[in-house]
């Protein structure tokens, strides 16, 4: 009985020490996911030349459980450089003891247009919503 208790305690300690997802790691993933989601709206010939800054915070509008992520990039077509911000809001959750992390894109704003969800309505249509989900999941769960 004592051996089982010790083994269980050891397993819990190892999980706590090795399986934790930090706030910084989660924010980095969501920054990359926001960039991937924005890529479906990028003009032909343009690519991200550099990621200049990523800011993350609890959503002012929606509160806890939602995270606003702003990715400031320079897009380029090799002739013209354009500075842009991609603004994403994610629904996020952490597992017990931060052992796991999950996020779903709630909405994205690119070039003044908003796509995703707002008050239960799909903005941009279901096809765009599916493309956004695929782009985000490809980064979060690679």
Summarize the structure.
The chain is α+β, with helices and mostly antiparallel strands and 142 residues long. The chain is built from 3 helices and 6 strands, in the order H-H-E-E-E-E-E-E-H. The longest helix has 17 residues, at 2-18.
Would you give an account of this structure?
The model is unreliable at 7-11 and 13-18 (pLDDT under 50). The protein has a six-stranded antiparallel sheet with strand order 1-2-3-4-5-6, with helices on one face. The chain has helices at residues 2-18, 23-38, 126-140; strands spanning 47-59, 63-76, 81-94, 101-110, 113-118, 121-123. Helix 2 crosses helix 3 (126-140). With 142 residues, the protein is α+β, with helices and mostly antiparallel strands.
The assigned structural class equals: alpha+beta
Mean of all residue-level pLDDT scores: 87
Work out the helix count: 3
SSE order, one letter for each helix or strand: HHEEEEEEH
Strand order of the largest sheet: 1-2-3-4-5-6
Task: Please give the alpha-carbon distance between the first and last residues.
Answer: 40 Å
What's the β-strand tally?
6
> What integer value in Å does the Rg equal?
19 Å
Query: Which blocks of ≥5 consecutive residues have pLDDT under 50?
Result: 7-11, 13-18
Main beta sheet:
6 strands, antiparallel
Strand content: 35-45%
- Estimate the helix proportion, in percent: 25-40%
Give the topology.
Elements: H1 2-18, H2 23-38, E1 47-59, E2 63-76, E3 81-94, E4 101-110, E5 113-118, E6 121-123, H3 126-140
Antiparallel strand pairs: 1-2, 2-3, 3-4, 4-5, 5-6
Helix pairs in contact: 2-3
